[in-house]
Amino acid sequence: MAEAHQAVAFQFTVTPEGIDLQLSHQALTEIYLSGVRSWKKRIIRLKNSVITGVYPASPSSWLFVVIAILATMYTRSDPSMGLIAKIQEHLPVSQSMSTQCQAVVSAVLFSTMLWLLLIFTMRLCLKQLLSYHRWMFEQHGKMSTTTKVWVALVRIFSGRKPLLYSYQGSLPNLPVPTVKDTVKRYLESVRPLTDDSQYERMTQLATEFESSLGNRLQWYLKLKALWASNYVSDWWEEYVYLRGRSPLMVNSNYYGMVCKSPFFLAKSAVPCCSYQFERMFDTCRIPGTLTDSVQHWQDSDYIVVYHRGRYFRLRVYQAGRLLSPREIEFQIQRILDDTSPPSKGEAKLGALTAGDRIPWAQARKKHFGSGVNKRSLDCIERAAFFVTLDDDEQGMLGDDPEASLDRYAKSLLHGKCYDRWFDKSFSVVYFKNGKTGINAEHSWADAPVVAHLWEYTLATDCFQLGYNAEGHCKGEVDSSLPRPQKLNWEIAPECEEQISQSLTVAQALADDLDFHVLSFKDFGKGRVKRCRVSPDAFVQMALQLAYYRNRRTFCLTYEASMTRLFREGRTETVRSCTSESSAFVRALEGGEVTEVCRRLFRSASEKHQQLYRLAMTGAGIDRHLFCLYVVSKYLGVESPFLKEVLSEPWRLSTSQTPVQQVELFDMVNHPEYISCGGGFGPVADDGYGVSYYVLGDSMINFHISCKHSCPDTDAHKFGAEIRKALHDLIQLLSPSHREPSKVGESRHEFKKDL
């Protein structure tokens, strides 16, 4: 209990002579240094707020304007056209202030107002410039004169050295599409999925909605768009994520795995919204009976570590400074060497966060509302993030590396169902053999934000911090570091029963998950680009072809696209199954001649790129329809059209894992440091979840999930179909390959060559 005593600032003993008060100098010093650190962070926040608040100008530009105005006054000219004199007339009369001093004060006030007006004008101009998105629809490699002028103006109005949140006030708001356009695009998206009678029925419902209720609901949405920063994001977070009552594990959380370390792509010249970064650390999802909430705290100076059924509080600050990597390693080793047993009910406590939300909310209120349980739970929820030290070994191991990679993915997604804290914003998992990964809660942010953090962290670890010859982190260790503090619990039998029930629910969910990681190394985006095709469109067409071969039908397909070109933007849906893509698949499978298949593929690819661009620029379908549905619920009116739209299952849910920061890592010279990407569970019980990660020019990783309980899905079989589809498409498009008249004959020859 030595570490507990060190945390006490004073002790007292009652004696016959009175009270003997003993102050702990070390504890008081720590309190003082913690206060200093907290104030330093407040000052830094204030400084950053000022810099961000005046962007694209700088605080020093105020002094420049003041000096310029005073200089012109010295030359007896009046740049204010009489306004400085007007300000001087209304200054409070003071005998201690001379007329000349009053003139200077008036000039400073005028200069400040002029400076603020210039900032407002520059922001307004930048906001209008960033509302221009025609550059995205131009042919790759060709830039119009208008876009060239736009790029130059953006650079002029963007200022220098922006901070993370500098552009927030200059980003445009997400536009509300017209009901007519949304309904038209929706009907186009369902045409390949319906027969003539079904399509006619859906067209009638859509027409009735557009001509009646749709306009009324649209009026409320436009009103919200005028008032709020983003008409979608708050409702999306509330109704899609926080109101879900099913387990977060598998259903909502996602993971990222690391073979060694990732590489990164170049930053875009166009700014993206950064508001999701605000809740990255010190954040936890709190369960509720009707709806959950996301709580964010500030200045957490510790992390929580789980190891062999115990929870430890590990402070990462000492004497007002951040611990060195070597010191953190030293503290982690102390946890690994700790042989103390878990408290009663502690070992599988995390299962509460893996099960259904309502039982967890009830248990939290009843058993964790006061006393030692509340203090320990608060410690976990307020931690910067959560760390699991897993005793298992993961990665590409043994004689069957593919199967071991599948186990690695499943472990990151659900673990043992109790050794992750699924409510935390993110949990970092370290395995016994040094492999690592991350599990993230979805409500507070989307995968690109977590990927950005993970990329930066791993690149810094590998290429800046590094390790010594013995494999230890570099640096020295302060021997006075207090030991990590083990959290205490008093778990009642009734609570243990609820933990057991939640674990049963979570274990059944984990056991039903079928997962396969397909590491495709035969070719990558380099060869695809030589065929003059978008790599994303190529992969999406391969997925459509693979799904059709797997199920002999088409399905509603979800591809996630980002809307972070707008303030507080999150995601939009690209409906990848189109009339063009289904026509191409049918032609290819029907044995049409090569030139016809190529032409249809080009058409399908261009259609997909067009839909992706529309989604990114605020002209998507699904978020608009979702918000119209929410408004209808608030108004208490029923819409058969919206009800049917929102009930359609996404049997193929896809997402491309972004690779973002090329300046941190050189993959050409360090090809051994490659990430395997990340993944998520299936959205529909009878469908697939597919995440893909395009690695450089020669590799594409697919993370495929489905459920064992569905007899029509199989992750490994679908992976095999994806592999075959990729080969068939690249063969079809390869300009150097002379094919016979029938693509089917070409595929046969290709198999023999393999």
From TrEMBL:
Keyword Protein biosynthesis: no
InterPro entries per the UniProt record, alphabetical: Carn_acyl_trans (IPR000542), Carn_acyl_trans_N (IPR042572), CAT-like_dom_sf (IPR023213), Cho/carn_acyl_trans (IPR039551), Cho/carn_acyl_trans_2 (IPR042231), CPT_N (IPR032476)
Entry's EC annotation: 2.3.1.21
Active-site positions on this chain: 442
PANTHER family referenced in this protein's UniProt entry, alphabetically: CARNITINE O-ACYLTRANSFERASE, CARNITINE O-PALMITOYLTRANSFERASE
Native organism: Scophthalmus maximus
Catalytic activity: 4,8-dimethylnonanoyl-CoA + (R)-carnitine = O-4,8-dimethylnonanoyl-(R)-carnitine + CoA; (R)-carnitine + hexadecanoyl-CoA = O-hexadecanoyl-(R)-carnitine + CoA
Major localization class: mitochondrion
Membrane topology: Multi-pass membrane protein
Lineage: Eukaryota, Metazoa, Chordata, Craniata, Vertebrata
Pfam families (UniProt xref): Carn_acyltransf, CPT_N
Family, per entry: Belongs to the carnitine/choline acetyltransferase family.
Coiled coil feature spans: none
A single GO cellular-component term on record: mitochondrial outer membrane
Protein's UniProt name: carnitine O-palmitoyltransferase
Chain ranges passing through the membrane: 50-74, 103-126
GO molecular function: carnitine O-palmitoyltransferase activity
Keywords annotated in UniProt: Acyltransferase, Fatty acid metabolism, Lipid metabolism, Membrane, Mitochondrion, Transferase, Transmembrane, Transmembrane helix, Transport
Subcellular location field: Mitochondrion outer membrane
Domain Carnitine O-palmitoyltransferase N-terminal: 1-47
Residues of the Choline/carnitine acyltransferase domain: 174-258, 269-723
Any GO BP: carnitine metabolic process
Domain of life, source organism: Eukaryota
Pathway(s) this gene product operates in, as recorded in its UniProt entry: Lipid metabolism; fatty acid beta-oxidation
